[in-house]
User: Fold this.
Amino acid sequence: MSEFQTRRLDSFIAEGSVLLGRGDIISKEDIDAYPGPYPIYSSSAQGYGKFGEYGKFMFDEELVTWSVDGGGYFFYRDKHRYSVTNVCGYMRVKSSKLHPKFVFYSLANQHRYLTFDYTTKAHPSVIQKLYWLPTIGYERQRKIATILTGIDTVIEKTEALIAKYQQIKAGLMHDLFTRGVLPNGQLRPLREQAPDLYQETAIGWIPREWSVSTLEGLLASLPNNIRSGPFGSALLKHELVEDGIPFLGIDNIHTEHFEAEFRRFVSERKFVELAKYKVRPRDVVITIMGTVGRCCVIPDNLELALSSKHLWTMTFDPEKVIPELVCWQLNHASWAQAWFRRAMQGGIMDAIQSSTLKALLLPVPSIDEQSLIYEYYLKITTRIRQDSGQLTKLQKQKLGLMHDLLTGKVPVTIENKTTTTEAVA
Assistant:
């Protein structure tokens, strides 16, 4: 509910204050024929909607664009040379009484409460009857846009910092798993500098002190040390309960992150019946259906849980290997990814068989050297998690600010301006 007076978007269009349009078809042949530096924006919500680059451009002005086919997401485009494809709409603000970035934030805030899909598309004729704009003065619009731009800038800097540390982590972990760490905490010299320190193996060059083992050879000496299920009639849908022992699924398993938001549960009686599928703290879990190949470690504080048929759950011998280091390799290591590709004959991986996992070859440093590698891993992973937590906090703060400022729930003061007679005509 808005505290501001509002008008529907089509009324601004009717008076000529706002103009809506669609982009043009830009084919791969067009891009190949006219290579260049100017961005093309399309329907994706990822990467600010950037589709590619082109030697021509449609616009060199400030616009609001949105995804017609891809969910109706809005983007603010500052003044630069660019094009938008035919699955994008564009909005040109023609009135000096409307602040373009304020218009963008107003539309983006309303979009949170609307649903578009590939059936219900965000055509200009559709959105002009769904969205509205507050009829407040330009200076108030500018002030609100400035506040929201400020938090967006902090969010972008935090995202860039996370991306930087993720790149650093990727390079560091590759070095750690191919060169290892000496007792003094330093990486071994490169193989080119000290070839006598390395040996050639089926998975490449590794330090001479290391061994290579199948994943199966690193599992704990326990029954069901690798397991998936229950299957078929062992657990029927109506046997799930609203509260009880968590029944884990794909939604809980992310890349190096366990999401402890549980949606499915089983009773204690059913858990006992299906105990061979239980998940233990420090188990390594990988998704084998749906989004295939995401892997994480079960946290220490999850004492009771049940694995589903969409997951492989693995219990490793702690005297042989540190679970997080296995997890990193399953998610990122080139030797693991190459093995999975070979198992799928180069195609798209739509499932992982237990035989594929068990036969995967992994480099195995001594447990003492693994501990040194894990210290590096933990330090940079903790930094990324802290920054990611801060990013989540900022994003939630932005959503709250958008709602409060764009509906007038929280007023903004305008210095040296009249605050009572600023309505848009």
